[in-house]
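In response to reviewer comment 3 from the previous cycle, which asked for concrete evidence that the modeling workflow produces usable outputs, we include below a single protein chain processed end to end. The sequence was submitted unchanged, and the resulting structure tokens are shown without manual editing.
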Amino acid sequence: MKSWLQDKESFKVVDVRELTGNFLPSILKRARNLDVDNGICIVQSFEPVPLYSVMEELGYEYETEKKSDTEYRVYFYRVTKQESDLPGGADLPFKPTAIVNFNTIDPKLAHNVVTFWDYIWGNEAPAIGMKTKLLLSLANGVGAGRMRQATREFVKAYASGVTTAEFDELFAMFAWNQGIGHFASEIGPSALFGAYRLVKELERKEVDRAEIVKKLLEKFGEKNPEVNTFFQDKKE
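The workflow returned the following structure tokens.
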């Protein structure tokens, strides 16, 4: 038993069960500002597995308690103060925030989705490396016409170390497999291709990769309506 668990009831409780938007940035902001030997409790309707690696990257240990089928309490305790190399404190851009949409339908459905996500992306000893998985997911997104997904996978792949030379070959394959006309009308004007062009432009200027990732997230991050996974009222 972790010694800090005896103090868990004193942790600040953040209940996100009724939130419908992307609450991850606010959680990470609070987590980054918390001092060592302090903790926070996150309450969610499903087990928030994608949050675990993010918090570990910031120096946290955690313990999960299942109170019911629709209430999970995760106690995070900061054992060391460390920062992620990526903007916002995440271990990888674009966590699967769309899981919250499934939670709106049914928490049990959200739990099944996050379990499947963990099976695909949380394997600690995968036969297929992360960069290859992201490129495959990117290509699947393009093939299915899901440019929103493809853009998110592109940013994650670049942040994970995929080179522009690899992207060049992949985009050439898109032209081959999807056809010149489809590429011209659908891929070329997309946020995906915009992100690809931005990377090549900044690399020609010899901008550091970490800075390029920051620029990508500023222009093609969650605030971009062509990239985020939540409905946005145009009146807002």
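The chain has ten helices and four strands. We consider this sufficient to address the reviewer's concern, and the full set will be provided in the supplementary archive.
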